[in-house]
Design brief:
- The chain has about 260 residues and is mostly helical.
- It has two domains: about 25-85, Orthogonal Bundle (Arc Repressor Mutant, subunit A), CATH 1.10.10.10; about 90-255, GntR ligand-binding domain-like (Four Helix Bundle (Hemerythrin (Met), subunit A), Up-down Bundle), CATH 1.20.120.530.
- About 65% of the residues lie in helices and about 5% in strands.
- It contains twelve helices and three strands.
- The chain has helices spanning about 5-10, 25-40, 50-55, 60-75, 90-115, 120-140, 145-165, 170-175, 185-190, 190-195, 210-225, 230-250, and strands at about 45-50, 75-80, 85.
- The chain has a three-stranded antiparallel sheet.
- Strand 2 and strand 3 (about 85) form a beta hairpin.
- Helix 5 (about 90-115) crosses helix 7 (about 145-165), helix 5 (about 90-115) runs antiparallel to helix 8 (about 170-175) and helix 6 runs antiparallel to helix 11 (about 210-225).
- It is globular, with a radius of gyration of 18 Å.
- The model is unreliable at about 1-25 (pLDDT under 50).
- InterPro entries: GntR_C, TF_FadR/GntR_C, Tscrpt_reg_HTH_GntR, WH-like_DNA-bd_sf, WH_DNA-bd_sf.
- Keywords: DNA-binding, Transcription, Transcription regulation.
- This is Transcriptional regulator, GntR family.
- Pfam families: FCD, GntR.
- One of its GO terms (molecular function) is DNA binding.
Length: about 260
């Protein structure tokens, strides 16, 4: 049965923090390094030294080395005996490929969560996250702070479903596909995407953007499928929900 979220998780006060007893420090370091690389905070061809990164992230060198090994397997960094780890440029094609894979995996997580069965309390908490997302969009005015908060709730929503699948291998596989920012629009925040997108599509709008309104509606449809115990429908909606990001980016990008 799907486990209930804690009150803190339901409120979304720390939606990015994985339970320490489940996720080791390495995963936190991995997510941070991945985000720094994808958003350009660490430029391509930068040599990644465990000692310096450990100091910057205030952790020991052990989780840094483990995270670098994973990033190498993901293709975000290259390794050579002479140079060690260096950052590889993330292309827009890499982003598209990652979204394609993630869509299938998240669809599977949605299906598995129904097959295992949702506890009423856990599903109510998931619905609460969706309601909070809806409330942000219905405020009308849009800002960077509103966007960040909506994306935080979005991340918490997806993560709750992934945990409800009770499949650690699947959850870890999904993490490996998150090679673009989850707390904002990759068209603006991911350099490899932004470089291919005209400025007019990268400007923050004054009102909630259409793609987030559509995404919010998808969340509500997914919850409805959960309540109806319709695993096939939930899988289909979730898969198409994730693929919508690829379709939008592909439509506005002038170079692939």
């Amino acid at each position: 049965m799907a486990m209930e979220m804690t009150g803190q998780e339901a409120e979304g006060s720390a939606p990015l923090a994985d339970p320490p007893q489940v996720e080791p420090t390495t995963n936190t370091v991995l997510m941070r390094l991945r985000e720094m690389i994808v958003t350009g905070q660490i430029p391509p061809e930068t040599r990644l030294r465990a000692e310096g990164l450990a100091t910057e992230l205030a952790v020991s060198r052990t989780p840094i080395r483990s995270a670098l090994a994973v990033l190498s397997a993901e293709g975000l960094v290259d390794y050579s005996v002479n140079r060690g780890y260096t950052v590889r440029a993330v292309t827009i094609s890499d982003i598209f490929d990652a979204i394609e894979v993630r869509a299938r995996l998240e669809g599977q997580a949605a299906r598995l969560s129904i097959e295992l069965g949702w506890e009423p309390g856990a599903l109510d908490q998931l619905a609460k996250l969706a309601r909070r997302g809806r409330a942000i969009l219905e405020q009308g005015d849009w800002s960077e702070a509103a966007e960040v908060e909506w994306y935080r709730l979005n991340h918490a929503f997806h993560r709750a479903i992934q945990y409800a699948s009770e499949n650690t291998v699947l959850r870890n596989a999904i993490k490996m596909t998150l090679i673009y920012p989850v707390l904002g629009d990759p068209a603006r925040l991911c350099p490899s995407v932004a470089a291919a997108v005209p400025l007019r599509f990268r400007q923050l709008s004054a009102t909630p953007p259409a793609h987030l309104l559509a995404s919010q509606a998808d969340h509500e449809r997914i919850i409805d499928a959960f309540r109806r115990d319709d695993a096939a429908l939930a899988e289909m909606i979730m898969t198409e929900h994730v693929l919508a990001t690829k379709r939008r980016l592909h439509a506005i990008a002038t170079r692939r």
